[in-house]
Amino acid sequence: MNATHPFRRGISTTERMYFPMRELAPPFLMQLAIPGEGEIDPERLRRAVAVAAAVTPGARLVRRGAEWVDSGVDPAVRIVPGHRLLEPALETDPVLTSAIGPTPEATVEVLLLTGAPVTLIFRVFHGVMDGMGMVVWAGNVLRALRGQDPLPQLDPIADQELVQRVGAPGRPTPMVPRYRSAVGRGRQRRGLARHLLRTRSVDAAGPGALARVCALLAAETTGPSRIMMPVDLRRHDPELRSTANLALPLFLDIAPGSDWTRVRDQIKTGLRERRELNQLANTRITLVPDRINRGVLHTTNWLGARVGRNLASATVSHMGRFTADELAVPGFRPTGLFVLPQHSVAMPLLFGLTEFDGRTQLTVSARNGAGIEERLEALLDRIVAMLEAELPMRDSADPRR
Q1: Distance of CA 37 to CAs 80, 206, 230, Å?
Q2: Contacting residues for 65 by C-beta, under 8 A, at least 6 apart
Q3: 1 lies in some domain
Q4: For residue 399, is it within any domain?
């Protein structure tokens, strides 16, 4: 693309769903955090972001009517001197909870926290990218920091166009708010954070982590659970190079007490039958005016918080496996990688899993309410204990332990 014909693509029905969320669940950003040892020079980072953005136009998009258009303006790089993340209650961190900048129409931002540990954070409005798109964008910036050529992501394709091309095999799963949450319900009150954001490090990793978490959530929930697992649609076109929203949900209906291997088999069957492609039809509701969309989301939040009835019990995503060697750049070696999910009024729990050098990083955004925080912390304790008991432990001789 060039200045005469800038990159542009239509805003998909899925992406329309995310616009009201910026008001209802601010800042409504996915955030990929990479803490590490060493330093990153701010000017070198700015140059790398510019080099990566030149071939990743999805990082420079602004809304123009029914389209996303490449603004030609590189994502802002914001340096936060001396700051370190406020754990464990990340929802209280003034940087993570701040609005993206520098202008209201900005959709991507990069942060460099210089406190110990130095942390690089990629912040993305979900309307322009999905989780894997964010990972690709971050990877391009790291490549540029290493002096390598970023991988061009120039296809103006999102989920809508791809599903139209490859076809949906069946009908969408009906969306009915009747599912309970593993942390129950709790009335939201003034002065109480509307959402919680927590992370835990698990000293173990291995296959089946996602299915095990889903099974445990079902065991902790009254009645059947419906877990939403985002599926990367790029698997249907390996040649596709796009950072757009290219994920649709595979719904897993799980009875309490189901073994994790049954959940794993359910996932395999759903992927083999390409069921996630059916779910694009559910996004057509977003074609109504934004004010109606906001009203629907308000009602969905009220039903979940006050009555305990949700469209799904939780979302659980696995964002991949990473190593320090593949992510390192001159002068800076990562010691971890985790994805902080966006907040949602339509879902009580959003879990993100990543694997880094033999550890599993677990993060969660939770709709808050009376009694939720205590129940969430207890739930996270049980998940960590289960994963450390059932997944392979790291080698005690590993010098990185």
Answers
A1: 17, 25, 32
A2: none
A3: no
A4: no
In a 13 Å sphere around the CA of 272, the CA atoms on its Cβ side amount to 6
Contact 112, 127 (CB under 8 A): no
- Rounded CA separation 56/63 (Å): 16
Residue 3 domain flag:
no
Rounded to a whole number of angstroms, the CA Rg of the chain reads 20
* 90 within domain boundaries: yes
Tens digits of per-residue pLDDT, 256-310? 999 999 999 999 999 999 999 999 988 877 777 777 878 888 888 889 889 889 9
State the pairing for strand pair 29-38/118-125: antiparallel
Question: Range of 143's domain?
Answer: 8-390
- 3-class DSSP state of 382: helix
CB atoms within 10 A of CB 392: 10
CA distances from 398 to 326, 350, 357, 392, 401 (A): 18, 32, 10, 14, 6
pLDDT in tens, 198-228: 999 999 999 999 999 999 999 999 999 999 9
Q: Which residue has the tokens 């332990």?
A: 401
Segments of 220-310 assigned E as strands: 225-232, 247-254
pTM: 0.95
